[in-house]
Amino acid sequence: MLDSVTGLLNKISEAQLRGEAVPAAATALDFLKAIYKNEGIPLSVRMRAAIEALPFETPKLSATALIPAGGDFAKRLERAIARSREGIRMIEHSATSRIDECGIAGAV
């Protein structure tokens, strides 16, 4: 029993020596980076650290609407939809039969 405890403590000490040291003034992101870059830590723990760090390393795309003071977004949206519907034209087309270059008749 004592041998197994001693062996486990030795393994822990070796893992700590292999690990990347994180300075005391490091940010939380630096700490997460140190975890997911340390190959001595189990993959599941490293993956979790990488997932948690991802939003801070890669920016997320987003859109922001700036409405002037006193503006109403719903009214502006309704006006934009009405403008987009103005002047809708249909393309009138009738199918005709022709023989294409391959000699096959088809509708165009």
What can you tell me about this protein's structure?
- This protein is mainly alpha-helical and about 110 residues long.
- The chain has helices at about 1-20, 30-35, 45-55, 75-85, and strands spanning about 95-100, 105.
- The protein has a domain at about 1-55.
- It is built from four helices and two strands.
- The protein starts with a helix and ends with a strand.
- The mean pLDDT is about 75.
Topology of helices and strands:
Elements lengths: L1 H17 L9 H10 L5 H15 L15 H13 L11 E3 L5 E3 L1
Antiparallel strand pairs: 1-2
Helix pairs in contact: 2-3
Distance between the termini: 85 Å
The largest sheet is: 2 strands, antiparallel
H and E string: HHHHEE
Count helical runs: 4
Find the count of extended strands (DSSP E, 2+ residues).
Answer: 2
Secondary-structure class: mainly alpha
Q: Which strand-content bin applies to the residues?
A: 5-15%
> C-alpha Rg, in Å?
32 Å
Widest sheet, order of strands: 1-2
Low-pLDDT ranges? none
| Mean pLDDT metric | 76
* Shape type: elongated
Percent helix range: 40-55%
